[in-house]
Amino acid sequence: MEGVDHLAQERSKAQFDVDQMKVIWAGSRHTLEVSDRIARLVASDPVFRKDNRTLLSRKDLFKNTLQKAAHAWKRITELRLSEEEAYWLRHYVDQPAYTDLHWGMFVPAIKGSGTEEQQKKWLPLAYKMQIIGCYAQTELGHGSNVQGLETTATFDPKTDEFVINSPTLTSSKWWPGGLGKAATHAVVYARLITDGQDHGVHGFIVQLRSLDDHLPLPGIIVGDIGMKFGSGAYNSMDNGVLRLDHVRIPREQMLMRVSQVTREGKYVQSNVPRQLLYGTMVYVRQTIVADASSALSRAVCIATRYSAVRRQFGSQDGGLETQVIDYKTQQSRLFPLLASAYAFRFVGEWLKWLYTDVTEKLQANDFSTLPEAHACTAGLKSLTTSATADGIEECRKLCGGHGYLSNSGLPELFAVYVPACTYEGDNIVLLLQVARFLMKTVAQLPSGKKPVGTTTYMGRAQHLIQCRSSAQKAEDWLNPSVILEVFEARAIRMSIACAQDLSKFSNQEEGFAELSSNLAEAAVAHCQLIVVSKFIDKVQQDIPGKGVKKQLEILCNIYALYTIHKHLGDFLSTGSITAKQASLANDQLRSLYSQLRPNAIALVDAFNFTDHYLGSILGRYDGNVYPSLYAEAWKDPLNESVVPDGYREYVQPLLKNQLRNARL
Amino acid sequence: MEGVDHLAQERSKAQFDVDQMKVIWAGSRHTLEVSDRIARLVASDPVFRKDNRTLLSRKDLFKNTLQKAAHAWKRITELRLSEEEAYWLRHYVDQPAYTDLHWGMFVPAIKGSGTEEQQKKWLPLAYKMQIIGCYAQTELGHGSNVQGLETTATFDPKTDEFVINSPTLTSSKWWPGGLGKAATHAVVYARLITDGQDHGVHGFIVQLRSLDDHLPLPGIIVGDIGMKFGSGAYNSMDNGVLRLDHVRIPREQMLMRVSQVTREGKYVQSNVPRQLLYGTMVYVRQTIVADASSALSRAVCIATRYSAVRRQFGSQDGGLETQVIDYKTQQSRLFPLLASAYAFRFVGEWLKWLYTDVTEKLQANDFSTLPEAHACTAGLKSLTTSATADGIEECRKLCGGHGYLSNSGLPELFAVYVPACTYEGDNIVLLLQVARFLMKTVAQLPSGKKPVGTTTYMGRAQHLIQCRSSAQKAEDWLNPSVILEVFEARAIRMSIACAQDLSKFSNQEEGFAELSSNLAEAAVAHCQLIVVSKFIDKVQQDIPGKGVKKQLEILCNIYALYTIHKHLGDFLSTGSITAKQASLANDQLRSLYSQLRPNAIALVDAFNFTDHYLGSILGRYDGNVYPSLYAEAWKDPLNESVVPDGYREYVQPLLKNQLRNARL
Ligand SMILES: Cc1cc2nc3c(=O)[nH]c(=O)nc-3n(C[C@H](O)[C@H](O)[C@H](O)COP(=O)(O)OP(=O)(O)OC[C@H]3O[C@@H](n4cnc5c(N)ncnc54)[C@H](O)[C@@H]3O)c2cc1C
Ligand SMILES: Cc1cc2nc3c(=O)[nH]c(=O)nc-3n(C[C@H](O)[C@H](O)[C@H](O)COP(=O)(O)OP(=O)(O)OC[C@H]3O[C@@H](n4cnc5c(N)ncnc54)[C@H](O)[C@@H]3O)c2cc1C
Ligand SMILES: [Ca+2]
Questions:
Q1: With b meaning 16 or more CB within 10 Å and e meaning fewer, what string describes A445-480?
Q2: Is B424 a catalytic residue?
Q3: Which fold has domain A131-272?
Q4: Could you report the per-residue pLDDT of B143-184, keeping only the tens digit for each?
Q5: Residues of chain A positioned with their CB less than 8 A from the CB of B238
Q6: CATH 3.40.50.300, domain B133-271, yes or no
Q7: Which CATH code is given to the segment(s) A278-455+477-605?
Q8: Which residue on chain B is closest to A233 by alpha carbon?
C-alpha cells in the first residue's frame, strides 16, 4: 500500500489550477514559497515530532515544549532565518509555548505602550531572548472587566519606585501564558496610585525571576495554574499564577508612552494620544482572525479527505460502498465550513490591510476611522473564532467514530483552539461592544454624519429599510449585488429595530442591558455582512489560474447562501427576503454543493499542509487511513502487555468469584 | 471561609419547594432516597476519588479504572445492594469502564437475542461476573452500515462449529468498549455463511481470553485502539481492536432467538418475530436520552452556580460588580439549557414508559406501534445528544477563562460525552431514518390510515397546514395549546413540503438523497415537537409542592419559545407564525428569563448532585470558588519544583545567549 495515492482519482477530478489556488491561499507566491520551505524543514526535523504528544505527562510535555522552543531558536539562529521565516518556523512547530506570548504580547505591549527609551532598552533584550516576557493582565477574580483589576502599583517618591502588590487572593494574576515557569519578566497591569489617588490600570515591566538561577525574586510567588482542556493541546503552555508582595520596581518601568509619573510623583498625560493603544489591539485581533482561518482549514482538510476515503452504505452487489462525501447531508455540513475557511482567510487578509491603514492614519493624527476599525476587528474576532470552534467539532463529528481518536488530530485541535473564543475579549462581550457602536452609528444617521468603512452601507438606510430583493429564480442568488443587498438589508433592519426598541426605555443603559441579546444578534448580522462583502471584493479582483476564480465564486456563494439558510429567521422576520426566495436560495445552495464536490479534495490540498503539520491519520495526504490507524493503535502504552497492569489485583479476583454474596 | 455558603442568599430567593422539585427530578421519592444515599456512599469512599484523574497516564488511568470497578463490585456484594442500588453505585463512580458494556450491551444482547437455554447458560455467568463481556459490532472499515460488516462466521457441519474470521484489515473489530484489555467474551457480529450462502449479519458469543491467565486464545489478536478525546474522560475505557483468525466456536454460541442453524447446517427462522430485536434498541436509546439529561444538568449546574459567583463590570463606587448571571446575554444562553435539561429529563421518563408499552405489545404480538416507537427513540436519541454536546460546551464558554481549566469539570464532561452523538447510531443517520418514517406516514395519510403515537398530530394535517396561530399578545405565548399548535404546524408543513418535493423525482431514492438535508430538518422539527409536548403533558399533571408547578411551567415555556427563536426560519417560512408573533414570543421569553432568575440556583440544586459527582470547583455547592482554584493549582506536577525540569538544558542557554547569530 505504501506510496499509493488513494486520493489520486479525487485529485484528477479537480477543475482548477491547484498551484495557483495555493498562491491565492498563501497570499502571494513569495509567502507560499517561504511557508512551504519552512513547513518541510520543520516536518523533517525529529525534534519537532508531535505524534506522541497526547501521551506525555504534564511535566514531560512541558519539558518537550521547552526543548522545541530552544531548538526552534537554535535553527532560527543557525540558519539565520529572517523574521518572516522565523514566524513560519514557530507556526509550524505547532505547540503552544511561552514564546507565543513573548513575541505575540510582551513585545507588542512594549512597542505599543513603551516610550522610545523604554523600547530602546527592552526590545533588544527581548529580541535576543535574553529575557523572556509575558503579559500579565487577568486576575483570578477579574478578566473581561480590565478596569476592575485589583493589583496596585503605588508610587513611592522616597525611593522613586513603584510598589507592586496583590492585596487579595482574587487579585492574584491568573492565566498569563508563559508566566508559570518560563518567563523572567512580565508586563503587569495594575492600578496606578500616586499620593493616595487611583489613576486606573496601567502597565509595568516587572522582573519575576533571577536571570542567574531562574528563582523567583523576593516577594514573588509564581506557579502554574494546572491542567487545561484536553491532552496535549494547550497544556504545553505554563499559564501562570502570580502574587506580588510589595515588590519594588524603578519608576522607569511603568510603560509611559501615553501617561507618565514624574520624579515628583505627578501623574501627567503625554502628548501621545491614548487612541494609539488601540492600534495594538487591531493588530492582535487581526492575527486571531488569521489563526481562525488556519485552524478551521486544518479541520476541514481532515474531514474532507477522510470523507472521500470513508465509505458507508449504498453498495450494489458487494461492490464499493458510497463515499460519505457524496451524501448531501455530509456536504451540507462540510462544504459551508470549507467555504468559511476561505472566507475567513480573505477577511483576515483585508484586516491586515486595515491595520496598515489605521496605523498610517494614526500617525497622521487622524482618528476618524478608529472606532469603526475597532468595532470591526472586535466583531470579526468574535464571529470567526466562534464559527471556527464550532466548525472544528463539526468536522470531528463528520468523521464518525474515528474522529474521536486522538490521532485523528481533531480532539487536540479543538481543545487547543476553543480558548480563542474567550481570550483577547470574551466573544459575547465583544459583540456587545460592536452593538454599542452600531447603535451610535444609527443614532447619528439623522444628523447626516456619513458612516465610514464597513458601516458605509448604513448611509443607505432609507433605501435598505424598504427595498425588496429582486431574486426571482435560483440563479439570481449567484448575483453578488443581490446577495449583498439582502445582507445589508437584514443587518441594518436589525440594528434599526434595536435602536427603536431602545428608544422606548427612559434609561438607555437599562434598555441596552434588557435588549442585549437582540443587540448581540444585530452585531452578528453586521459582521457576517463584512465577511460576505470582503469575499465578494476578493472574487471580483483579477484572479489568474485556470478555473480558480470560478471555484472562489462557488465558495463565496456557498458561504453567503448557507449563512442565509442558517439565519433564515433574521432574513424573514426583517422582511429582507420572502419564504419563496429563501426556498430558491436553498435550491441554488444544493446545486453549488454539487458543483463543488469534484473539487473538494483539491480545494483542501490548496492549503498546502504537510502531514506533519496536519497531524492527522484521517487527513493523510495519500488517504491511506486504515493501515495507519491499525499500526498506530499498537503504540499505546496500554498495549505494552497483553494482560493489563492491574489484572491480578482487580480482574482475576472478580472472575474467580472471590467477591461473592451479590444479591443480584 | 470554610463552611460559609456563598450562595446562601441566592438559595433564599427561591420561590418554590426545592425538596419537592428533587422528587420530581428524581422521578419518585423512593428514587431520590436511593440515589441520594448511594451518591453519598460513593462520595465518601476514598477509592472513588477522581479529582486527579486528568493527571494520570493512560496505564495508570486504566489501572485505576480496574480498581474502581473491582471496588464497586466489592461494595455491591458486601453491602448486598439491590440491582437498583448497584446501578446507582456504578453511575456515581462516574468513570467509563468495561462494566458499562458488560451490563449495558453484552447482557442485553444475550437477553434480547439469546434463546432461553442460551440465557440460562450465559446470564448467570455474566451476572456473577465470572465472565466479562463486550459488544463487538463495529469494524475498522464499517460502522453505521451494519449490513456491510466483513467478519464471517462460516458453519462447519463436520465439527458442528462456526469458524469466525477477519478476512481483511478493514474487517478488524474496532471500537468495542471493554474489548481491548478486560473482556473475556464478546458478542461478535459476523456474516453467517452456511453452505456457501451468506445470510447477513448475526451475533455470536466468542470467548476471547483464557479464564485462567487472561491470555488471548489461539487465533485471537486483541488490543486497545489508543488515546481518545481529552485527558481522563473516555480514556479509562479500553475500546479495542480484534482480529480473528479462523477461530472455532460451538454451534450453540450463535445467538439463536430469531434465526438458527441446525445441526445439519440448515438456516431456519424461529417463530419468534424479528421485530423483538427492536425492543432492545428502544431500551438502549431510552437510557441514552436519560444520560443526556444527566450530562446536561451537570454542565448547567456548574455554569449556573459559577455565574452567580462570578462578577464582572457594573460596580458603582468600588462596590461589588454585577453577577454575570444577571446579564441578559448570559441568561439567554444559560436558561434555555437549564430548561433543556428538564425537558430531556421528562421526555426520558416518558421513553421509559414507552419501552414498557412496546414490550407489552410485542409480547401480545402487536407490532403496530413499533415503527413509530422506533423512529421516535431514534429521533430523540439524536436530538438530545446533539443538544447536550453543544450545551456542555456552551456552559464551558459561559464560565469564561476558568471554564477552560480541567478542574472546572467541563472539559472532561464534554470529552466524555460527545461520542454519544456517534455511537448507537450516528445522529444524522438516525435523523434520516426518522425522515423516512415521516415520509411514509405522510404518504399514507390519503389512505385514511391513522397515524399513531407521536405522529397522531399528522392525522390533523388538513387543519394544521392552513391554520393561523391565534397569538396576539406576549401572554398568549404562555398558552400550551398555542405553543403546541405552532410546533405541530411547523413540523407537518416541513414534512409535507419534503413529500411534495420528493414527488417531483422519478426515482424516490435519488430524491431522498438529494433532499436529505431538508429531510433531516423536518425530522428535527418533529422531534422538537415531541419534547415540547411531553414537557407540556408533564406540567399538566398534578404536581405537589409549593411553587413547583409554576417553575416547571416557566421552564417548559422557555424551552418552547427558545426553540421557536432558534429555528425561527422554519416557523416563518412555513407560515406557522408571523414576524409580529415571533417578536411577541421573544418579548415573552425575556420576561420568562427574569422570572426564572431568582430560582436559578435552587433549580440546579434540585438535581441533588454531590460535589464529588459534579467534580467541579466552579460548581461547588458552597460557591467558594476562588480559594479552591488557588489551592488546586499548586497540586499540578509542574509545580513540584519552582524551576522547571528542562531549565538547564533548554532555557538557560537561551537566556545566556549561547545560541547567537540571529539575523533578527
Ligand atoms: C488559554 C487562555 C490563555 C490566556 N492567556 C492570557 C494571557 O496571556 N494574559 C492575560 O492577562 N490573560 C490571559 N487569559 C485570560 C483571558 O484574557 C480572560 O479569560 C478573558 O479575558 C475572559 O475573561 P474572564 O475569564 O474573566 O471571563 P468572564 O468575563 O468572567 O466571563 C464569564 C461570562 O460572563 C459573561 N460576561 C462578562 N461580562 C459581561 C458583560 N458585561 N455583559 C454580558 N456578559 C458578560 C461572559 O460572556 C461569559 O459568558 C487567558 C485565558 C485563557 C483561557
Ligand atoms: C466512544 C465510542 C464507543 C464505541 N463503542 C462501541 C462498542 O462498544 N461496540 C461497537 O460495536 N461499536 C462501538 N462504537 C462504534 C460506533 O458504534 C460507530 O462509531 C458508530 O456507529 C458510527 O459509525 P462510523 O464510525 O462508521 O461513522 P460513519 O458512518 O463512517 O460516519 C462518518 C460520516 O458519514 C456520515 N454518514 C454515514 N452514513 C451515511 C448515510 N447513509 N447518509 C448520510 N450520511 C452518512 C455520518 O453522518 C458521518 O458524518 C463506539 C464508538 C465510539 C466513538
Ligand atoms: Ca495525559
A1: beeeeebebbbebbbebeebeeeebebeebebbbeb
A2: yes
A3: Butyryl-CoA Dehydrogenase, subunit A; domain 2 (2.40.110)
A4: 999 999 999 999 999 999 999 999 999 999 999 999 999 999
A5: 638, 644
A6: no
A7: 1.20.140.10
A8: B230
